[in-house]
Amino acid sequence: MKVLIIHGPNLNLLGKRDSSIYGEKTLEEINNLIKSRASQLDMEVEIFQSNHEGQIVDKIQDIVSKDYKGLIINPAAFTHYSIAIRDAIEILDVPVIEVHLSNIYKRENFRKESVIVPVCTGQISGLGYNGYLVAIDALKIIE
């Protein structure tokens, strides 16, 4: 089972951002935990990070022509306004899980709405890096 993981803008700065919101782990550390969990479940993961909306859309569109069985995406700030990412996800025929390190519903009002989640299978918010691991488990279960 091959799964694509997408990290959105500013997640490359994890470990330098407010640790009370985003935790202390770097993106590299989180990616290593993701790879380890996927390996335990006999899953293959491809991990991609970009600060650019168009690159994320292009990567999502790759799912259509490749043999991915699921998508885990943390759209970060794009969560709240990217119709382009939403539209790219909407055409997929694989399970999609939106993940957020922080609980977006406990934050500023503008962060409480996701334009992405209505086209996703589910959302995990507020579990820190563990949200990615739970998302991997969920994709394996619904495979």
TrEMBL record:
Annotated positions binding substrate: 74, 80, 87, 101-102, 111
GO molecular function, one term: 3-dehydroquinate dehydratase activity
Positions of the record's site feature: Transition state stabilizer: 17
Enzyme Commission number(s): 4.2.1.10
SUPFAM superfamilies in the record: Type II 3-dehydroquinate dehydratase (SSF52304)
Pathway: Metabolic intermediate biosynthesis; chorismate biosynthesis; chorismate from D-erythrose 4-phosphate and phosphoenolpyruvate: step 3/7
GO BP, sorted A to Z: amino acid biosynthetic process; aromatic amino acid family biosynthetic process; chorismate biosynthetic process; quinate catabolic process
Enzyme class label: lyase
Keyword line: Amino-acid biosynthesis, Aromatic amino acid biosynthesis, Lyase
Keyword Lyase: yes
Active site: 22 (proton acceptor), 100 (proton donor)
Top-level lineage group: Bacteria
Reaction catalysed by this enzyme: 3-dehydroquinate = 3-dehydroshikimate + H2O
Annotated function: Catalyzes a trans-dehydration via an enolate intermediate.
Complex formation: Homododecamer.
Database matches in HAMAP family: AroQ
Family: Belongs to the type-II 3-dehydroquinase family.
Protein name: 3-dehydroquinate dehydratase
